[in-house]
Write a structure and sequence with these properties.
Blueprint: H1 8-14, H2 18-31, H3 37-43, H4 48-57
Length: about 70
C-alpha cells in the first residue's frame, strides 16, 4: 500500500475530516470510473448499501457489473 500525507492545514482549509475526505475521494473516483462500487465503498469505509444511498442522494447513477452480482 502507498501512503499519502495530507497536511492538517489543507484539511482545515477544505473543512473536511479524514472520514469526509475519504468519502469525497471515493465518490469522485467512482463517478469517474476509476473504482468499482465495492472498491469505492471500501475506500469510504462504508458498506455497499449505505454507499449506494450516498450516491443516490447525490444523483450519481450506480453502474452494476457482473462482479457486483457474484
Amino acid at each position: 500500500a502507498t501512503a499519502m500525507t495530507i497536511t492538517d492545514d489543507i484539511m482545515r482549509e477544505a473543512n473536511l475530516t479524514e472520514a469526509e475526505l475519504k468519502t469525497e475521494l471515493a465518490v469522485l473516483l467512482y463517478q469517474n470510473g476509476k473504482l468499482s462500487l465495492g472498491q469505492a465503498a471500501r475506500l469510504a469505509e462504508m458498506a455497499r448499501l449505505p454507499f449506494q444511498f450516498l450516491l443516490a442522494g447525490r444523483q450519481i447513477p450506480v453502474n452494476y457489473d457482473e462482479a457486483a452480482f457474484a
